């Protein structure tokens, strides 16, 4: 089973629906992560404000943040290797990263 780990920048929540305005990029990304999970990918997500230890415990994340600053966040790791940094990829890009084709069922929105 493939594992995707997302190391977000500091924010109050990862849903994109908190605060004064909805962040559609975060909403779309959350749906894309749900899609990965529905298709057999283990997904883990970390926020430095709430899970600082996860950032500190991961040598690749610590090194990248120390060298490039928080601008490299979000960092996305696939099976422990950095595959994306600095932006949230879309569902199709995530699917390409993990080898899931476009035909995989998409999550149903509530």
Keywords:
four-stranded mixed β-sheet; 4 helices; alpha+beta; 17% strand; 110 residues; single chain
Brief account:
Helices cover 35% and strands 17% of the residues. It is α+β, with helices and mostly antiparallel strands and 110 residues long.
In DSSP terms, counting alpha (H) and pi (I) runs of 4 or more, how many helices?
Answer: 4
Task: Write down the secondary-structure element order.
Answer: EHEHHEEH
As a percent range, the share of helical residues equals 25-40%
Main-sheet strand order equals 2-1-3-4
How would the global form be characterised?
globular
Largest sheet: 4 strands, mixed
Radius of gyration: 14 Å
The unreliable regions are none
Please report the total strand number as a whole number: 4
Average of the residue pLDDT scores? 88
Protein structure class? alpha+beta
Instruction: Report the sheet-strand fraction.
Output: 15-25%
Q: How far is the N terminus from the C terminus? A: 27 Å
Describe the 3D structure.
By secondary structure, the chain is of the alpha+beta class. Helices cover 35% and strands 17% of the residues. It contains four helices and four strands; from the N terminus they run βαβααββα. The chain has a four-stranded mixed beta sheet. A hairpin with a 2-residue loop joins strand 3 and strand 4. Helix 1 runs parallel beside helix 4. It is globular and about 40 Å long. The two termini are 27 Å apart. The model has no long low-confidence stretch (mean pLDDT 88).
